[in-house]
Design goal:
Order of helices and strands: HEHHEHEHEEHHHHHEEEHEHH
Strand content: 15-25%
Number of strands: 9
Distance between the termini: 70 Å
Structural class: alpha/beta
Largest sheet: 4 strands, mixed
Number of helices: 13
Helix content: 40-55%
Mean pLDDT: 89
Strand order of the largest sheet: 6-7-8-9
Shape: elongated
Radius of gyration: 24 Å
Length: 271
């Protein structure tokens, strides 16, 4: 493979020693560095100028990208799509100046190869348990299980901390989104029965609570023809004895007490 192919296959950054082991000559690397066609973010590293700045930062700082940074790059549910870099120290004795990153010091549960810049998803998930609120951690773990990026069986065999093992025991791989995961656990905490993605009268609904309450969560697509279709289905549900509660994404994430009150009121009135 060419030098640029090797670099692109490694996210744009590699150790100099590895490049030389692959047959690339040090003199040629130095010429490309001099011409600005390659950059050296840190001694011992070579990168393309277009490399992700977070990887360059990791090489410069001598750390490993992990936790929420890996979660976001893996396409998993994350309530906040932006945020500071989350990095892991390479050893408990590393000396890292305080910058804008969130630094994780705990030992990994999955052995790391030397010099890696991006942590495994298993290690990232393990850090998430102690880094994020429990609901957020649960949604992220269920997202990873749902996308089959990890398996329950493989995770169970790792040396998880008690909090992570307890979280895993409660996870299910059937939540389509983190929002669905939030609602599922909040409703079950109210001791109400709940079925997610239930099929009723020819349509799928977000949640069926206590067998007669339909909870629908509107996203940005619930406009125009989609809204008309939703309204027709709501009318059919109500005509067949179901109580329909329709709320927005914002209400679930920012005003859950209001949503909870509507659910409990409907459950109490039917009883």
């Amino acid at each position: 493979m060419s030098l640029y192919s090797d670099l692109r296959a490694a996210h744009g950054i590699m150790r100099v020693g590895e490049l030389i082991d692959r047959g690339h000559r040090r003199h040629a690397l130095n010429l490309l560095l001099h011409d600005g066609r390659l950059i050296r973010p840190q001694r011992g590293w070579i990168a393309l100028p277009t490399t992700d700045p977070s990887l360059l930062r990791a090489a410069e700082r001598g750390v490993i990208l992990t936790c929420m940074t890996v979660v976001r790059s893996s396409g998993l549910w994350a309530r906040d799509g932006n945020g500071p870099l989350h990095v892991a120290a390479r050893s408990p004795h590393a000396h890292l100046a305080r910058c804008n990153e969130v630094i994780h010091w705990g030992s990994p549960v999955l052995h790391r190869p030397p010099h890696i810049l991006i942590d495994s998803l298993e290690n990232a998930l393990h850090y998430v348990v102690s880094c994020q609120p429990r609901e957020e951690a649960m949604a992220i773990w269920e997202s990873a299980l749902d996308k089959e990026l990890v398996t329950r069986e493989a995770l169970e065999r790792l040396p998880l901390r008690p909090a992570a093992r307890e979280l895993l025991a409660e996870c299910t791989p059937f939540s389509d989104s983190g929002l669905e995961s939030y609602v599922k656990h909040r409703v079950r905490a109210l001791r109400l029965s709940l079925v997610a993605q239930a099929w009723i009268l020819g349509h799928r609904v977000d949640f069926l609570i206590e067998r007669w309450i339909v909870l629908q969560i509107d996203g940005g697509t619930h406009v125009g023809r989609q809204r008309d279709s939703d309204n027709r289905h709501d009318a059919r549900l109500q005509a067949n004895g179901y109580t329909v509660i329709r709320v927005s994404y914002r209400q679930v994430t920012s005003n859950w007490p209001e949503v909870q009150h509507r659910i409990m009121l409907a459950a109490s009135q039917r009883r």
